[in-house]
UniProtKB/TrEMBL annotation:
Record's keyword annotation contains Protein biosynthesis: no
UniProt entry keywords in alphabetical sequence: Glutamine amidotransferase, Transferase
GO cellular component: cytosol
Protein name listed in UniProt: Glutamine amidotransferase
MF annotations from Gene Ontology: transferase activity
Taxonomy of the source species: Bacteria, Bacillati, Actinomycetota, Actinomycetes, Micrococcales
Length: 244
């Protein structure tokens, strides 16, 4: 199988490595089957899509919808590079999965609306599939309602033209969509486990993903959650698009 490509943007090694390991485990991948490029560390190298089975863009401390003048030089470079890659991905209907920051980037690239209207504090939520989600080749493999982990300051408020809504949530209407047949984006994290989100909370404790006085409640909700279905979506992505 050709490897998949993870384009990461977390500068904190603990969070970056936990994200990588989360995608490995969720996808049932070996390290040689998931090539990682940490874009925050330096310019994107030349990428030949035909060398990979698919591209994954994970979460980030970056927010795609932040005002341009507030973005760092690194964020502006990263988003310019990813815009160029997304142009090829969308034009070719190339296998892609963008999670959290990835859904913001894809929505922005396709001229949908990303803003802070539907932000969600870190923790578990209930996700509900739409009829299109239940019929989808990836999402149709999971239960119509399932728990997932989120934590985001921005979200898709208006779908890009032609996008198919696959999943929704009570406090964030767009939890997943598809463009074409092979380009996917999720607001929730398909790679996160209970241990993984606890690592994120520790690393990003002061980044505003939850109210400081609500920390104990956040931990209690995570401990009481049963989050298994999102990894099934990641595994389905690997099984469907893994190619020789």
């Amino acid at each position: 199988m050709k490897p998949f490509l993870l384009l990461a943007t977390r500068s904190e090694d603990e969070a970056a490595d936990d994200e990588y390991n989360g995608f490995l485990a969720a996808g049932g991948l070996r390290p040689e089957q998931l090539h990682r490029v940490r874009l925050e560390a330096g310019p994107m190298p030349p990428i030949a899509l035909d060398d990979y089975s698919g591209v994954i863009v994970g979460g980030s401390p970056f927010n795609a919808s932040d005002a341009a003048e507030t973005k760092s030089a690194v964020q502006r470079r990263v988003e310019g590079e990813l815009d160029g890659l997304l142009a090829d991905v969308v034009a070719r209907d190339y296998p892609f999965l963008g999670a959290c920051y990835g859904i913001g980037l894809l929505t922005s690239y396709l001229d949908g609306v990303v803003d802070d209207t539907w932000s969600e504090a870190a923790g578990p939520i209930e996700v509900s599939l739409t009829a299109d989600g239940e019929a989808d080749q990836l999402f149709g493999r999971v239960a119509p309602r399932f728990e997932a982990f989120v934590g985001h300051k921005e979200a898709c408020t208006a779908l890009p033209t032609g996008a198919v809504l696959l999943a929704t949530g009570e406090n964030c209407p767009v939890q997943a969509f598809r463009v074409g047949q092979n380009v996917y984006a999720t607001q929730f994290h398909p790679e996160l486990t209970q241990a993984g989100i606890l690592t994120r909370l520790r690393v990003y404790h002061d980044n505003g993903y939850f109210e400081p006085d609500a920390y104990d409640d956040v931990i209690a909700a995570i401990d009481a959650s049963t989050v298994t279905e999102p990894a099934t979506i990641m595994k389905a992505f690997v099984q469907r698009f893994g190619t020789d």
